[in-house]
Structures are given as structure tokens and as C-alpha cells.
């Protein structure tokens, strides 16, 4: 563990009765990183995060947050902002009262108006929680992560139920928090958001990491694809190994060097006067990595 390590999980094990939900899991999150903990349903993400947040006790292994046990609530909790899947604000409180309550509970300093502005709920300040829409409730949940600019922020499926504008606004706010030095741990099933925003990803499956690394480290394990069709049969043999669709007109090329193979294919088409119809060159996406592990 170095001075820049914010979270240090070492050989964590968690069980429910006889069911071993998290198995010897180790990872670290460094200061300023956005670390995405992703995985298949039931992989153990929530159980792991609950332990890191100090809500659950490990069966074995150690968890350190800012170098201390997350169970040391006073020392550690005031430095964390946790946006749960549902915060459970009292339905009878107004939005403004709920945000003020976050301040009181977190013991962090901030101005309620500033937080309302960031989560775009100023116009709803005096509205009761029970009268908010699903997306507005989600933005109120986000206030728990924003209030007092916590050093460590947990975002548990933060954009579920948000429209595209609210999503963009949330990610802008997260970017701003990161500029101010916050470290972020994200879980989400929206893989394109993780692909776009995460520095590193821990990909869980059946209680352990299937892979861990940057987006490019994860996606480089699978080939990218080039797809096209030909209007007529090819006048010369294709320059690359391709799968056809049976009638010889649709082709799929799998490649670990997309720019190079695209260059070769376009050069071949040009030299032979061939029209490549419906040409699509797609880099490997996290979805592809996911599909590969889900079929294990
Ligand atoms: N209180 C509990 N009692 C028994 N089993 C549990 C309990 N909580 C979780 N589990 C089991 O532990 C495993 C991991 O659950 P967990 O909620 O950590 O997964 P997850 O990765 O967050 O899943 P999801 O993406 O579906 O939310 C699952 O198989 C789940 O059924």
C-alpha cells in the first residue's frame, strides 16, 4: 500500500450461510482514480462495496480505506460520499430539508443551495420527496455524493432512471469533483458509461475478478470486427481471412490490428475497383468482453 492508495482490499472473502459470494478478492484504488466495479448479476459487487463502505464485516481478508478499517466510522465515514441505489430519504421531508440532513449526517461543510444547484433541484427545493419523479429522486440521491466534496465517492448505478440530459449533467458534476481531487468508485450496468469514464475496471464474475485493468487492457483481449458486403463476386481473392454468410456477399473479418487490416482491405478494394457496401469497422466494446464472460 502506498500513500496514494485510497482503498486496499486484500484477499476478501464473504459468505451468506454456506454460499461463498466473494472469493479471495484483492484490488486497490488510487487517489484521483475512477474505478469501475462491474460484473454479471450476482457477481458480488454489492457485497464487496458494502464491506468497503463499512456496512458489512469480512469473513476473512482485510479492507483498508484511507489506511484504516472502514468500520472506524468517525475517522472514515465523513470522508466518504455514498450514493446508494436508493437513499431512503423520508417522504415527508422537502428536498431542501433532505439535503440539509445529508450535511448534518456527513459532518461535511457545504451550502445547501450550491448542492441543489449541482443536482439541478433548485426549483424543487420546497417539494416533498414523496412528490418527486423517479429521476428527480435519483438526482437527490446524487446529492449525498456531492455534499461537501467528499474525498471518496461511491456511485452505485448512478444514472439508472435518468434521462440523457440528467445523465450528462451528472457526469459533468462527477468530472468536476474529480478535478477537485475526489476518488470515485462506480458500479453500473451501463457499460458504455464505464468505458467512457473509468480509468480502471474490475470485472467480477462468480465472486472473483475475471479481469482487471484499463478499458484498453480489457478490450484488447478480444478482436475488433470489420463487416462489409460485396455487390458482385470478388474479382480477386480477399486480402484477409474473412467469414462469409454463405451466399458469398456478406463478410466478417476479426482482427487484433483494426487500422492495419482496414488499410489493407481498402487498398485491395481500390486496386480492384470493388465497392465495399455497408462497411462497418467496430472496435471491441466492453459489451463484447461481458458477453464472453457471461457465456463461461
Ligand atoms: N443477504 C443475502 N443472503 C443470501 N445470499 C445473498 C445475500 N445477499 C447477496 N446474496 C448472494 O450473494 C451473491 C452476490 O450478491 P451481490 O448482491 O453482491 O451481487 P451483485 O454483483 O451486486 O449483483 P447484481 O448485479 O445482480 O446487483 C448473489 O448470488 C446473491 O444471491
TrEMBL record:
Signal peptide interval: none
Predominant localisation class: membrane
ABC transporter domain location: 7-231
One GO MF term: ATP binding
Taxonomy, superkingdom: Bacteria
Localization, UniProt: Cell membrane
Transmembrane segments annotated in the record for this chain: none
Its membrane topology: Peripheral membrane protein
Alphabetical list of SMART domains matching this protein: AAA
InterPro entries, per the entry: AAA+_ATPase, ABC_transporter-like_ATP-bd, ABC_transporter-like_CS, ABC_transporter_ATP-binding, P-loop_NTPase
Transferase found in the keyword field: no
Record's protein name: ABC transporter ATP-binding protein
Organism the protein comes from: Streptomyces tunisiensis
Amino acid at each position: 500500500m502506498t500513500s496514494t492508495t485510497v482503498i486496499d482490499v486484500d484477499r476478501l472473502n464473504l459468505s451468506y450461510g454456506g454460499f461463498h459470494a466473494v472469493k479471495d478478492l484483492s484490488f486497490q484504488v488510487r487517489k484521483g482514480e475512477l474505478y469501475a466495479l462491474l460484473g454479471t448479476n450476482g457477481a458480488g459487487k454489492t457485497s464487496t462495496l458494502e464491506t468497503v463502505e463499512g456496512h458489512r464485516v469480512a469473513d476473512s481478508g482485510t479492507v483498508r480505506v484511507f489506511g484504516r478499517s472502514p468500520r472506524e466510522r468517525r475517522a472514515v465515514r465523513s470522508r466518504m460520499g455514498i450514493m446508494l441505489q436508493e437513499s431512503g430519504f423520508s417522504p415527508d421531508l422537502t428536498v431542501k430539508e433532505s439535503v440539509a440532513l445529508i450535511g448534518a449526517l456527513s459532518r461535511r461543510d457545504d451550502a445547501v443551495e450550491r448542492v441543489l444547484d449541482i443536482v439541478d433541484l433548485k426549483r424543487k427545493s420546497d417539494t416533498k420527496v414523496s412528490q418527486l419523479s423517479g429521476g428527480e429522486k435519483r438526482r437527490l440521491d446524487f446529492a449525498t455524493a456531492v455534499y461537501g466534496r467528499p474525498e471518496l465517492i461511491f456511485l452505485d448505478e448512478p444514472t439508472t432512471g435518468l434521462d440523457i440530459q440528467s445523465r450528462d449533467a451528472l457526469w459533468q458534476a462527477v468530472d468536476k469533483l474529480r478535478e477537485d481531487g475526489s476518488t470515485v468508485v462506480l458500479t453500473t450496468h451501463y457499460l458504455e458509461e464505464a468505458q467512457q469514464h473509468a480509468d480502471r475496471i474490475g470485472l467480477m464474475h462468480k465472486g472473483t475478478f475475471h479481469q482487471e485493468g484499463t478499458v484498453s487492457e480489457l478490450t484488447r483481449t478480444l478482436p475488433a470486427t470489420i463487416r462489409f458486403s460485396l455487390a458482385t463476386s470478388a474479382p480477386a481473392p480477399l486480402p484477409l481471412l474473412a467469414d462469409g454468410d454463405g451466399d458469398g456477399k456478406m463478410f466478417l473479418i476479426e482482427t487484433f490490428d483494426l487500422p492495419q487490416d482496414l488499410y489493407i482491405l481498402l487498398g485491395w478494394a481500390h486496386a480492384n475497383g470493388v465497392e465495399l457496401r455497408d462497411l462497418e469497422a467496430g472496435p471491441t466494446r466492453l459489451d463484447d468482453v461481458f458477453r464472453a464472460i457471461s457465456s463461461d
